[in-house]
């Protein structure tokens, strides 16, 4: 009987020594990893915010992907910045979407959007933004560019027609003039 109890106790000890470290190792992947924007993207966001006179982005930081730039007032009035934080073992984030809709922004459309190389969407619908569409937008792999209902002037730069990934281009209700660039017709993914 004592031998059986000793063997049982020994088996339990072996189980604890072998399996507990394995289980703990499995849970180590669930640890908290800081998901941060590169400092360059923080500086770009600060420049964009200043150019647009955006009072809703008061605390731009490396940790802004955690939701500090997102505010919803109604379904048509909101600030939303989305990031992809899957880089460098989920410790580095990059801005992929910027939506600033109906916020009465009165600044100038900044060329610095093109410095966000992972950016896929710019939606500045229903503001009072002026200036012209920067030619540098043609360097970004955007899928959505919406400037609906602003005070954008000048002509549509031919570089917009070079964005092969573009699916939605919404420019109505602005002060745009001049002919449409011919290469807009070559955008095979364009649905709107």
Automatic annotation (TrEMBL):
Lipid biosynthesis as a keyword of this entry, yes or no, is no
Q: What is its main location?
A: membrane
The record's InterPro entries line, in alphabetical order, gives:
Leu-rich_rpt, LRR_dom_sf, LRR_Rcpt-Like_S/T_Kinase
Entry's SUPFAM superfamilies? L domain-like (SSF52058)
How does the record say this protein sits in the membrane?
Single-pass type I membrane protein
- Signal peptide start and end residues: 1-25
Question: Where is this gene product found?
Answer: Membrane
Alphabetical keyword list: Signal
Q: Which domain of life is it from?
A: Eukaryota
A GO cellular component annotation here is: membrane
Pfam families per the record? LRR_1
Query: Under what name is this protein listed?
Result: Uncharacterized protein
Task: Please name the source species.
Answer: Escallonia herrerae
């Amino acid at each position: 009987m004592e031998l059986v109890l000793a063997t049982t106790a020994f088996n339990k000890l072996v189980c604890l020594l072998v399996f507990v470290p394995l289980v703990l190792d499995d849970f180590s992947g669930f640890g908290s990893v800081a998901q941060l924007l590169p400092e360059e993207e923080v500086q770009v966001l600060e420049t964009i915010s200043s150019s647009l006179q955006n009072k809703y982005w008061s605390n731009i930081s490396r940790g802004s992907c955690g939701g500090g730039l997102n505010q919803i007032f109604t379904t048509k009035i909101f600030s939303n910045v989305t990031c992809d934080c899957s880089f460098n073992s989920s410790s580095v984030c990059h801005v992929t979407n910027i939506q600033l809709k109906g916020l009465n922004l009165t600044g100038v459309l900044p060329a610095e959007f093109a410095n966000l190389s992972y950016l896929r969407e710019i939606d500045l619908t229903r503001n009072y933004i002026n200036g012209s569409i920067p030619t540098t937008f043609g360097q970004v792999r955007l899928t959505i560019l919406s400037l609906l209902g602003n005070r954008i002037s000048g002509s549509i730069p031919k570089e917009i027609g070079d964005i092969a990934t573009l699916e939605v281009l919404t420019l109505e209700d602005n002060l745009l003039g001049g002919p449409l660039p011919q290469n807009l017709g070559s955008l095979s993914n364009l649905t709107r």
